[in-house]
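quick one, three chains, predict together pls
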Amino acid sequence: MLPPVFGVLFDGLAYGMLLFLLSVGQSVTLGMMNFINLAHCSFAMLGGYVTIGLMHRYGVPFFATLPCAFVAGAIVSIVFERTLFRRLYRASELDQVLLTVGIVFISIGIAAYFFGTDQQPLLLPGYLRHSLTFLGTRFAVYRLILLGIALAITIILVLILEYTRFGARVRAAVDNERMARGLGINVDRTFAITFALGSGLAGLGGALAIEIVGLDPYFALTYLVYVLIVVSVGGLGSISGSFIAAIVLGISDIAGKYYIPQLGAFLIYLVMITLLMWRPLGLLGRR
Amino acid sequence: MALAEKASAPLLHLRAQARWRPAEIAFWLAALLSYALFPNYLSLASQIAIAGMFALSLDLIVGYAGIVSLGHAAFFGLGAYTAGLLSKHGWGEPLSGLAAAAGAAGIVGYATSFVICRFRHLALIMLTLGFGLLLAELANSLGWLTGGMDGLQGIHTWKLLSYFHFDLYGYTAFGYALAVLFVVYLFARRLIHSPFGLSLRGIRENFLRMPAIGAPSRSHIRTIYTIAAAIAGIAGALLTQTTETVSLDSLDLSRSADVLVMLVLGGAGRLYGGLVGAVIYLVARDQFSGIAPQYWYFWIGLLLVAVVVLLPDGILGGLAKLASRWSRS
Amino acid sequence: MSAPALAARGLAKSFGSLVAASDINIELPQGVRYALIGPNGAGKTTLINLMTGMLRPDAGRILLDDADITALPPDQRVRRGLVRTYQINSLFPHLTALESVTLAVCERSRAAQTWWRELSAYPREIEEAYAILCSLKLDSVCHRLTRELAYGQQRLLEIALALATRPKVLLLDEPAAGVPREESTELFAAIAGLSRDITVLFIEHDMELVFRFATRIIVMVGGRVLVEGTAHEIAADTRVRAVYLGRAVSKMPASAPGLLHG
């Protein structure tokens, strides 16, 4: 019989992997262009609502909606990038914060208008609602699958980054944007593609999040704080940094809620503040 | 003789910049006239004065020193709860309540300023956000002190200056809020036009150059952050004293967000930006009070996007641009 | 024999495997005008950053008037009189020229710490700032915003900001960079007009400026000091020619003040 801590660790790990999916795009794009995009979780929310809409109105099976959530996040982000964001790459931080917060508010309004303000119910197929029992600890099938998907994506990301030309361009641009341009790398196009990929992953994360944390119009704001914590603690431009920070945050949050529920999110904020003071550029940040 | 005349010309020019403009006098007269013009809206007018003061305090750090803070409501809430707790435990004298609130918020501001002054960019934004959220969580957890979700009960504000009783129509409340706002404004104005104010603008304009001219930037940032915290605390205390309630939403993230929106709407770095923004925002919110919050924020979102893209210096900035174009033609 | 105004002893700085500075030994006697030249990437700006405290050295010491300042933060070095200007203008775009220089003067005199008195209550600081602007012929534009000034005027404002701190040692990082020929006369006059109490080191690529003002030239290549000497010696040195000046410096500029200063 395993002690309950393993169950807590497993849940924390699954939650952390979800946060990683939501945050990795933000970390890389921030590291590359220093563009603060607070609307990142709006793309996640969009992915979630796409899944809900496809499943409930068109009867599309859950797993088939996941690529659609990814694509939706990617495409909408490209539209925003082309029209609004690119004007603000050189703007002040305040302007970037305000513009993207504005978009978050707009997205909340739109989501509320089309879907109402209640939590969206999600009817998963039967087998996904079971759990496996191993050594006396229950492992929810959904969370196992979530872990699997997230790990697979992480491996793919690392492979892309380390072994493809595109990945090399991304690494160069994150390391030193000016020099990358000087070397002839089309940083703007690399950024646009990375941004789309990151937003697509956020959309996927949003779809996968529904079963774990629910979906309502305020998702864009609630999880923004978590994403920002992961990104700033993990370090801008660092996939491994986000990975570690997301897992630490996920486990701390679940463990905190399980063992010391009266503290609430206090612990998370305290940890973030302490870590940032120790390492303002994040644990593995480069800038 | 000629040299002395030549030397005093730049001095006169700088002195002239600090002079009161007719538009400003008109603004304050109009505020005072609210008594006559909007007698039924005095409680709203008090809210506007308080929000304007809060926005002014934020302007000092955002518009003048260039520190983007997403957690300024922490100080507002600190001041609100200080005044509330004082009153609840038997001391309801308004002016000393304000002083206590300024002190409490100022002390916490001073302490956090040591952290704030060492960071820039995203880390700084996250730290201010983190502090704000932390304090809000703390207030929620310490229900025995703060009254938790229900807020503090049993607040009663004594007579102002032992003479003015806080009536139901809000006459005293508005006069009080407006008077305090004016005093705070005069203080902020003097600060902005002082050599220290010039330093702040230098920090905002080019942070990296400041040490190269021998400026102790961190010390300057600590000073202004403390002052801004104290003023936010006064605004919070005013809210408590005039409404005789205080609750967790005085510390809420939405309050930090609202005040930033007000400031940006009016135009940061222009002293009056926060005041103008507060007027517009709160009047609009009053007019559209029937609207559900998610739709209210939808329109605010649209407004924010429009302001950033079209009117980056806020309404006052836009007006200033129009005025200079007009005077040129 | 008085102590050198500024001395670097064994300075070294590396960024990972990139050696930006290695065993730098430099001495600037009081009141001299020296030039620091070298190809791009030689480490000249790194040296300036080390001297001003923007970078911490891996080894070595920096002495200002015989006092070890290696551990001092940048703003304290400025207070002791070690000041630099920037190769790419680092000014205050929305402050006027007068406000910018007044700011520097107020920081020096510590007037900048008072928030309870108006700026116009400090006539001495304002007049000092104005006088500096006059000496650089910027008085006519002193009320204009920095961003509206011509590029040459902005370069002069860079120097004005430095002068406002009452430097003892002035490090000028490519003062003539980007200034068109027509506007450079004022700049050269400003440099010539610098008080003899100030020790000056310029980094420059503009050889006319170097030969005109510098009595001694230090050549840096690849993070090291290659050679040091008078204008004559450097122009004649084959190593320098090969590395930096190229083959075609057979003709010296008509006025070679290396000759004048001797």
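Chain C touches chain B through 47 residues (CB under 8 Å).
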